[in-house]
Design brief:
The protein has about 240 residues and is of the alpha/beta class. The chain has a single domain, classed as Alpha/Beta hydrolase fold, catalytic domain (Rossmann fold, 3-Layer(aba) Sandwich), CATH 3.40.50.1820. The chain is about 40% helix and about 20% strand. It has 9 helices and 8 strands. Strands 1-2-4-3-5-6-7-8 form an 8-stranded mixed sheet, with helices on both faces. Helix 3 crosses helix 4. The protein is globular, with a radius of gyration of 17 Å. It starts with a strand and ends with a helix. The mean pLDDT is about 95.
């Protein structure tokens, strides 16, 4: 199994295809791992590998990746992991694609290293909907409860602080609206349509980002094929 070790962090990743690099950050909330792509409306590890060097990864403490937990953990912690993996693979610049929570990770990566992220596909972006933050806190707490079974070292106070670092405030959690307004990175947004992925958040991202395009319908059998073709062509057009 390809495991990248960074200090006391172990990150599992897989590679598919060849070409300009495309880093995938999977759906699944705090369980963000490669397997979720295989259960998505379309699987970029399959659909995009003929055109790109597709790099998929399990986020820390999801799937086969492991890391310590501290009260200081947050979006920046994941961005550091992702950038370290790119460094390990000698990827200077790349496209990025995130599903669900992966969209917020992508936005955090753009903020952390804008010169390295050429273009971003945001599929089903998460964000604060009208029913408030409790939905995201519950998702985190469910993941934390599972983690405690295998990680007795997981401290309750650290997990609570970690949860609040991840899911507080509003919008997409990892970056502010002001950041999105200033972000020149091209974005293709595949709109969400449920309480974890509110349509209003996708629409607002598309309104705020100077170089954003929006696909509203992409999940159903009659629309997914065209959506895949558009994603592929859009990314190819932006290869430096």
């Amino acid at each position: 199994m390809p495991i990248f070790k960074r200090a006391d962090v172990e990150l599992y990743y897989e590679e598919y295809g060849a070409g300009f690099p495309l880093l995938l950050i999977a759906p699944g909330g705090m369980r963000s791992q490669i397997d979720f792509w295989h259960r998505s409306p379309f699987d970029p590890t399959v659909e995009l590998a003929a055109n790109f060097r597709v790099i998929a990864m399990d986020q820390r403490n999801a799937g086969a990746s492991r890391a310590p937990i501290s009260a200081a953990d947050g979006w920046h912690t994941f961005a550091a992991d992702q950038l370290a993996l790119l460094d390990h693979l000698e990827v200077a610049r790349c496209h990025i694609m995130g599903g669900c929570i992966g969209s917020s990770y992508c936005l955090g990566l753009i903020k952390a290293a804008p010169q390295r992220m050429v273009a971003a596909v945001l599929q089903n972006p998460i964000g604060l909907g009208p029913d408030g933050i409790a939905r995201f806190h519950n998702m985190f707490d469910d993941w934390a409860a599972e983690l405690r079974h295998s990680r007795p070292d997981a401290d309750d106070a650290a997990l609570t602080a970690f949860r609040n670092n991840m899911f507080s405030g509003d919008f997409v959690f990892s970056v502010s609206r002001d950041f999105v307004r200033s972000c020149l990175t091209p974005m293709l947004i595949l709109a969400g349509s449920d309480p974890f992925h509110p349509t209003e958040v996708s629409l607002e991202l598309a309104r705020l980002a100077p170089n954003a395009e929006l696909i509203m319908e992409w999940k159903t059998p009659d629309t997914v094929g065209a959506a895949v073709e558009r994603v592929r062509a859009w990314l190819e057009d932006r290869v430096p």
